[in-house]
Every structure is written in structure tokens, then in C-alpha cells.
Amino acid sequence: MLVTAIWGLNFSIIKLGLKSVDPFVLAGIRFTLCALPAVFFIRRPKVKLSYLISYGLVFGVGLWGVVNLSIEAGLSAGIASLLLQMSAFFSILLGAATFRESISKFQCAGLLLASLGLACVVTLTDGSATFAGIVLIIAGAASWSVANIVIKKSGTNEVLAFLVWSSLFSPIPLFLIAWVDHGTAAYVQTFARIDGRAIFSIFFQVYPTTLFGYWIWNSLLKKYPVSTVAPLSLLVPIFGMLGSMIVFSEHIGVTKLLAMLFIVLGLVTGLYGRRLSAVLISRQIRP
Question: Is the CB of residue 186 less than 8 Å from the CB of residue 178?
């Protein structure tokens, strides 16, 4: 629960950093510190270099660079944390296309429910969701799904080492995008405007969120059944909404509650519907 709370709060912490730092520069600094100096102390994972490069680009640029941009484009931290969970359904679709995994009726039902949640977000008029922000966060969710496919195809069991070494390939593209977009102004303004909030945001993203969070999460997955640990990730958007309420006084009205209900219920149905159905059936046939 501590890790899911950190991951949920991270979206509000990102927004704090974006008040003074360009979104791609912020992500670039984050992944620079994720890689350095850790690569000098953690042995490179035994995978092809192409997997590390691909993951670094997709996870660093396609996911977190785009998430930062979506928040800068007007998406609230709470809504960003909620819509990013759509990656679960992109992963299902990509898994079917890449590994020929079958799509169950529960997954289809879950996707439908989550789509209703997305529709609720689109109707928001309180300024917490913009069209550009929604499109960008959905693109980020799709990138997260691709990143999951990359790490699965790599077959690595050294997840922390994989994350650290792949982070080497994220900063340069992120810094280049910032330069192409704003020229040297992106860096001049960063050094001129960076403050304590931005520094706190960077360190929070690097250490509690990325290195500590992934290390603890994957340690739990090794020690306990996936069915015990994985459902806790459903708490991330809830902590994300709570964090946004506390840090930015985001108003949570009926529409946002419905969106959260539909998306979380869709995740439960799509990811755990088959298992829950089997448990209910087994209880019904017991004498």
C-alpha cells in the first residue's frame, strides 16, 4: 500500500515540478538520476542491448515524457493517474496481437466499463481535463503497454537492473525533444526558474517512485503470489485523486467519482473477473 500511495502521489509531485521545469527536461533529469550513478554498482542484466534501448525509449520518452506533457497540457494529476490505468487494456490487446493470447469475455466487459469511465472524463467541464491532455495520457498508456511487452519479451528476471540500465537511453532523446521544441530557452528557463519544489519533485520521482517503488514491488512479486500483490495496483488512481485533492485542492464531483468507479470496476472485471467468477461458482456448488 505504501508503494501504491507513492505512485499515486507521484502525479501531483510531477505537476509541482512542471511549474518551473519543461516537461521533457524534467523527465530527462529524472532518468539521468535513475541511471547514474546506479549503473556503476548494479550489474547489467543479461539481455540483448536492443531490449534495453527499446525499453528506455518507450518507458522514458513515450510514457513519462508524454505523461508530463499531458499534465502541462491541462490534465489534473488525479485524472492523469486514473486514465493511465487504461494501459491494462492496451496490454491485453497487444498481448493478443503479439503472443496470440485469447481475449476473454471478462476482458471485453472490463474494456467496455473502462470506456464508460473515459467518456465521463471527456464530459468534464471544470478545467481538470483538456482534449489535448486526454489524448496525450492515452498515448502514454499505450506506450506503457508497449514497454510491458518489451520487458516480457526480454525474459529478464533482473527487473531493477533492467530499469536502471534502460534509463541510460532515455535522457538524450528527452533533452533533444525539449531543444527541438523550445531551443535553448528550455534549459535557460529551467536553470533560471528551478526552485525547491522542482528539486523535491525530481528527487521524489527518481528515488521513492522509480528505484524504491519498483524494487519493493518486484520483491513482493517474487515473495508472494501475483494474485495477492497485483490487485493492490488498483489503489494507485485512488491515491492519485486523493493526492490531487490535498496538494491542489482538486474538486471531486459526481462525474469524477463515476469515472473512477467505471475504470476501477473495469480493471477488476478485466483482470480478475475470471478468477472471481470461478471462486463464486465453487462456493455455490459446495454442499
Answer: yes
Q: What percent of the chain has pLDDT over 70?
A: 94
* CB contact set of 99 (below 8 Å; sequence gap of 6+): 152
How does residue 122 score in pLDDT terms, banded at 50, 70 and 90? confident
pTM: 0.87
Phi, psi of 194 (to 5 degrees): -60, 135
Measured in whole angstroms, the distance separating CA 150 from the mean position of its chain's CA atoms is: 15
23-34 burial: b if 16+ Cβ within 10 Å, else e = bbbbbbbbbbbb
